[in-house]
Amino acid sequence: MLPALVRKTWRDDRRALIGWATGVALLTVIYTSFYSQFQGAAVLKQDALPQGMLDFLGIADMLSPAGYLQATIFSLIGPLLVLMCAITLTARTIARPEEDGGMELLLANPLSRAAFAGQRLAATGSAITLVAAIPVILLMIIVPQAGMDIPLSNVAAAGVGLIALVWCFTGIAFLAGAATGKRGTVLAITGVLAVTTYMANAIGGMSDGWQWVRWLSPFHYFIGTDPLHTGWHPVQLLALVAVGAVTTVVGVFMFDRRDVGV
After folding, report:
1. What's 258's DSSP letter?
2. Separation CA 193–CA 208 (nearest Å)
3. Using an 8 Å Cβ cutoff, are 27 and 73 in contact?
4. Which stretches of 95-253 are assigned E, i.e. beta strand?
5. What is the pLDDT of residues 215-252, one digit of tens each?
6. pTM for the whole thing?
7. Fewest CB within 10 angstroms: 63, 94, 115, 221, which?
8. What secondary structure letter does DSSP report for 221?
């Protein structure tokens, strides 16, 4: 049986999870359902968007099935929505009960601080992973039905990359919350870092002199390898997972030694 704290976390977050999961599912279904109309419309050509905008978004083309999915699901809106879910839910693991004054009651359970933090993050992390997996689950069904000529292994690679990106930022958000106990700080730090690193990846892809900054961005390891065209890149995926794992361990360590409520 699952630990009581895991079940309680899921129960407390169930409405938010249903909302986020529904939003991500609708995004995926709506955009992919437009593909046949987009492909057949004479006025919607790749040159309808400036080349600079395509370069900024890291989109090679919008007419191929892979280019269309990258532009609509994996380039901006999809990662933005899933990361918003991850950051807001992760801010609840430590920072919310501490700010609401309920941390002392939760810590009264016969658990060490490390076990408490681990169970809270395990519950939230599994829920976030499920939300992040919705696009790839749906696309594995929709892509063949829609006649999109994309290998399903490449779709899986992009979907797993999105999950790895979410794990990376979940670890960072957890570290911020464990270190400060402030939801506002978690949202500010992680949000600014997400926007900054996204911009770094975009600018690095547009300018030859700034290509090196892409290697500092988690988004480069997620979508910079163009998995919808090139398939799996295990090293890049493991790099994202490693960042999430290291920040999580550091977060547990800091929470275990910090004076809660101070």
Report:
1. S
2. 23
3. yes
4. none
5. 889 999 998 888 999 999 999 999 999 999 999 999 99
6. 0.89
7. 63
8. I
User: Is the separation of the CB atoms in 255 and 247 below 8 Å?
Assistant: no
> Which residue in 90, 217, 111 sits closest to 165, CA to CA?
217
> By C-alpha distance, which of 256, 3, 242, 250 is closest to 122?
3
166-205-73-14 Cα dihedral, nearest 10 degrees: 20
The tens digit of pLDDT for each residue in 86-101 reads 999 999 888 887 777 6
Give the model's pLDDT for residue 72: 83
Q: List the helix and strand counts (H, then E) for the chain.
A: 13, 0
Euclidean distance between CA atoms 82 and 70, whole angstroms? 15
Integer Cα distance of 26 and 77 in angstroms: 12
Q: Report residue 19 as tokens.
A: 């909302």
Instruction: State the Cα–Cα distance between residues 61 and 55, nearest whole angstrom.
Output: 10
Here the tokens at position 101 are 């004054």
SS3 40: helix
Of the CA atoms within 13 Å of residue 82, those in its CB half-sphere come to 35
Structure tokens at 141: 């069904």
CA distance 127 to 227: 25
Whether the CA torsion 69, 201, 168, 91 is positive or negative: it is negative
Which pLDDT value is given to residue 3? 78
Q: One-letter amino acid identity for 213?
A: V
